[in-house]
Amino acid sequence: MNAIRQLDLVGQIVVIGIAKRLEEIFYPGDPVPLYLDKNTSSLKIIQHLRNEAHRFGISFHRDKRSKGALVSQLTSIPGIGDKSMESLMLQFRSLSGIKSATLEELTGVVGAARAKAIVEFFSKEETQK
């Protein structure tokens, strides 16, 4: 509601909240919740909207977190920049794919010096665990 107020959109956008356990519907500023029959199509639509918003938010957060972890690990290897990282990801699809690749496979993608740096980086990481 704070964001809607800041954008001066109060009254132009309808905002409701739905509590998960009892499926109570809340309107901003109204302390008394609205209860809909559990079998109504209205409640089913509101539940679906809530579940989709939740799924979208979780997926976005997971994607952002995993990309951040990937970028920080690969870019911390000397000599690995954006282009090398992009080539590695296109070839191996994931960080675990890069970690499990052989020196020869990595050399075919990023060259001998970078491949050696990648293998050394991940072997040091394994020994530190």
From TrEMBL:
GO cellular component, one term: excinuclease repair complex
Example of a GO MF term: excinuclease ABC activity
GO biological-process terms attached to the record: DNA repair
Domain called UvrC family homology region profile: residue spans: 3-58
InterPro entries for the chain: RuvA_2-like, UvrABC_protein_C, UvrC_RNase_H_dom, UvrC_RNase_H_dom_sf
PANTHER family reported in the protein's UniProt record: UVRABC SYSTEM PROTEIN C, UVRC/OXIDOREDUCTASE
Designated name of the protein: Excinuclease ABC subunit C
Native source organism of the sequence: Geofilum rubicundum JCM 15548
